[in-house]
Write a structure and sequence with these properties.
The chain has 275 residues and is an alpha/beta fold. Helix content is 51%, strand content 12%. It has helices spanning 12-26, 31-38, 42-49, 57-67, 72-81, 89-96, 117-130, 135-151, 166-170, 176-190, 240-256, 260-271, and strands at 101-106, 159-165, 195-200, 214-218, 224-229, 234-237. This is Transcriptional regulator.
Length: 275
């Protein structure tokens, strides 16, 4: 039987799934064997082991009872639920590392792949001060971001298309010094031979095709995945019935947004303090 390889370093959820499988294998049980002891289906066990479902408190408690592991899985399950990384994003990030093309649309903040360390730290610090995440979760976010940015420095480099809502460049983050450095970073990004940077102006109004951040990754075999998120949920989608309309909407957005030349001029004007 073909079994999905599990990477426990991918996310807290992946670590839980890998450990659950390892404990099950040590006892010589099938997924159905464990499911019967826990009161779940074999399909549910498979989904948790492979990271397609998160372990609920009830699931983790039942697993501990069936496997005789005290409260170890319950405690590990709490770590999964306390992660600052939205569900679905670690899996997307793993695909992003291999993608031939990456398309980004962002609202309100600069996309992570384009952030300076100072800008990223300011965003994370703000979330900690609001009580939205803990300092440990902020460190988790920043570590994942640094890993994603480092993965772009590969040969051949992926093509990156970034469309930023105007709010991204006008929202002050971290003070004037941090914003100056971030705007300089955007101009430098636009000058690379493998990138396209565009700003979707406020004037686009209802012609803006997305109301939430979107990421599309085209893999080396030309398959495309899309990741979209709200404030509390992340969604990874491979179904062409969803992906193709999203790709079409992205192309429509690019056609409506300012050209790269116009976008860079707008950023440089803002950098000089002009309205």
């Amino acid at each position: 039987m073909n079994r999905k390889e599990l990477d426990p370093d991918e996310s807290p959820k992946a670590r839980f799934g890998e450990r659950l499988r390892r404990l099950r294998d040590e006892r010589g049980w099938t997924q159905d064997d464990l499911a019967e002891r826990m009161g779940y289906s074999g399909t549910h066990i498979s989904a948790v082991e492979t990271g397609r479902r998160s372990p609920t408190p009830r699931f983790a408690h039942s697993a501990d009872k069936a496997l005789g592991t005290g409260d170890q899985l319950e405690r590990q399950g709490r770590a999964v639920r306390s992660s600052a990384i939205l569900e679905g994003f670690p899996e997307y990030a793993a695909h992003e590392k291999r993608a031939a093309e990456i398309r980004l649309f962002e609202l309100g903040i600069i996309p992570g792949l384009l952030q300076t360390p100072e800008y990223a730290a300011a965003i994370a610090t703000g979330a900690v001060r609001r009580g939205a995440i803990t300092e440990q979760q902020a460190e988790e976010r920043l570590a994942l971001l640094a890993e994603r940015q480092a993965a772009l420095e590969r040969a051949p480099a992926p093509l990156i298309y970034a469309v930023l809502d105007e709010s991204c460049i006008r929202r002050p983050v971290g003070g004037p010094g941090v914003m100056d450095g971030q705007l300089d970073r955007l101009v430098a990004f636009a000058a690379l031979p493998t990138t396209v940077l565009q700003v979707a102006p406020y004037a686009l109004g209802e012609r803006r095709t997305f109301d939430l951040p979107v990421r599309l990754a085209t893999m080396p075999d030309r398959t495309v995945i899309v990741y979209a998120e709200s404030a509390t949920q992340g969604y990874l989608e491979r179904d062409s019935r969803v992906v193709l309309p999203m790709m079409t909407a992205y192309h429509q957005l690019q056609a409506e947004a300012r050209s790269q030349v116009e976008s860079v001029a707008m950023i440089e004007q803002l950098r000089k303090g002009a309205p």
